[in-house]
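Recall that a protein's primary structure is simply its ordered list of amino acids. Everything else, from secondary elements to tertiary packing, is in principle encoded there. The following example makes that idea concrete.
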Amino acid sequence: MVYSYYMPSKLIIGEGSLKKMHEQNLPFKKALIVMTSGKSLEKNRYLDILINELASSSISYVLFQEVMPNPTHDNVMKGSNIARENNCDCIIGFGGGSAIDCAKAIAIMATNPGEYWDYIKNGSGLGKPLVSKPLPLIAITSTAGTGTESDPRMVVTKNDEKIGYGNDLTYPYLSIVDPTLTYTIPPHLTAYQGFDALFHSLEGYVNKHHNDMSDIFAEKAITLLFKYLPIAVKEPNNVEARHFVSLANTLSGINESTSGCTGEHAIEHALSGVNPQLIHGKGLIIISLAYYKTLIKNEVALDRFSKLVELISPKKPAEPQYFLQLLEKLQEDCGVNNLKLRDEGFSENQFKYIAKQTFYTMKGCMDDDPHDWTIDDVINVLKESF
């Protein structure tokens, strides 16, 4: 097997690392700070810390605080226009995956013509190559879920199409992972975000293109999350748990770059494309057991699941079926078991359309899945998760 590892982002990880930002000799003059419309970063004075760090670096800023929980094409275009109008020479994504993903897309459109969807390769995107290098991006994550601070990808929604995009030019210039910013996240969101990180690594682990390098990051992230995520959910101020969940999230992002996601993420993107109010991590949890049951039932990647059992619970027999029990137990421990699609406003008559959208918008993930999925397979996962 031939594989590559490319990670051009500088990562600063650890408690209080946001206050180290001014020590980085940043070569920028004016930043666009991209945030969601939520007020938690202001309420908890985290935004004040960032502004002080920028002042210490002699960097002025403009604030764009309108990003949706599932960032939209309109968010990207409005933010990029503001960056152009204000002659910003860098973009700062501050917050969770929504803010940072949108910031990446804004960095692209601040220097490239047309509309963002012109460059998207799936769905109704035109698949054009970028004309110019995006603006440099600083990613400051206040959650532990997407790993977007350590990968080049971003996810944006237009109409019903929620599609990922990224290339070697869209890695962050600098990423700051300060676990203290996650202490104020409510337990249920801690769980949703942590499972998103977990599934990045689990999907990377069973992906057709997994390799020795990606396995290193995936195995470490998976073991950390199985151990520390329930603690972080139950004890929000547990320093050790928050640190290792944040680290696992960053490792999962690197794993995503060296391997990739599979059908689980593709199905969820179709779901939250249709219903943007569905929280991404929650959607992944809802379909997860049905998704992994499908792989094991079809005797796909069984050696991978046996290895996972060995990693997570060495005392159990290394049989693939035990992985489902371990995943179900983790959901119970984090208080996110028994979630259903029916409670998120979906109806069964939407399932055929959602299944078709899965292949239309996220074909790459479906191609990388070890199982040869059909429309009926996806519909069955949705039915089992209803």
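Residues 84 and 110 are 6 Å apart (CA to CA). The first strand starts at residue 10 and ends at 13.
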